[in-house]
């Protein structure tokens, strides 16, 4: 088959060489001109095919997905709902809330970040859980990832929409995974609550029950000081992997930075809840922030850094596709799509 495709070229080359041996000028022979013309068309065809191939490669990266060196990142949808301004507060500067239109609404939800590299398949947070309406397991199936494939889950903080998916029906959702969380977060939420008024125990009980079920099933739980370098936990991950203190939303709220050859992604958990508002006015917090003063300072610091270094960011409550860069605009910030 290959011989049939190149035979016309061989025949033409023989004609050129035959003409040359007869003493006729090689440059001006009809055969040589024909040879050059065919070669030019062939090169043009190859160049066009290569350009199309490159375009195809560029389009292959779908919204909500990115590759940073050996690291593959994908945003997984867990839930979707409408947000309005009702959850926004600004105790330190109430006048800021006047900037929000009375009829403000936006589509938001809960997202979980999937990271794959080598033999490791990792989740950052675990969503609400199927029993509470979460769709993480469906999203994993669409991504052709089995719950058994998950080797680690890194928790940003212990609010239910971030840990609820760890256990379903009293059993671990990811039986082969090690669960990691900041020691500071565990110290607050997983403590003895016998001395806490009964009406306030609800915020603790869900996490306590979940982690008790994980321990009973033999799931390894690693508690690390927030701010730790976590690279050592993954021998197959040949890049920097660090946690960072982002206290305020909760006492041990922790964000994660992964850096491969200078290409960084920041997984920021609940730095923002209503992104369209809080990017513009970073002093506006959410009712879910346990310490609004700390939370707004962390938000400003993280966004300033993300904008200055133009790094890729991913949050738990952002709009699709969920991956973007941050840029300064006046006193606030805006999103830049990848």
General description of the model:
The chain starts with a helix and ends with a strand. It is globular. Strand 4 and strand 5 (120-124) form a beta hairpin. The protein folds into 2 domains: 2-60; 65-337, 4-Layer Sandwich (Metallo-beta-lactamase, Chain A), CATH 3.60.15. It is α+β, with helices and mostly antiparallel strands. 31% of the residues lie in helices and 27% in strands. The longest helix is centred in the N-terminal third of the chain and has 31 residues, at 30-60. A 7-stranded mixed sheet has the order 1-2-4-5-6-9-10. Strands 11-12-13-15-16-17 form a 6-stranded mixed sheet.
Beta-strand fraction estimate: 25-35%
Give the integer mean of the pLDDT values.
85
Q: How do the strands of the widest beta sheet line up side by side? A: 1-2-4-5-6-9-10
So, CATH architecture of the largest domain? 4-Layer Sandwich
| End-to-end C-alpha gap | 44 Å
**CATH class call of the largest domain:** Alpha Beta
Structural class: alpha+beta
- How many strands? 17
Poorly predicted runs of 5 or more residues: 1-7, 16-32, 41-61
Q: How helix-rich are the residues, as a percent range?
A: 25-40%
Query: How large is the count of helical segments?
Result: 8
CATH topology of the largest domain: the name is: Metallo-beta-lactamase, Chain A
Biggest beta sheet summary: 7 strands, mixed
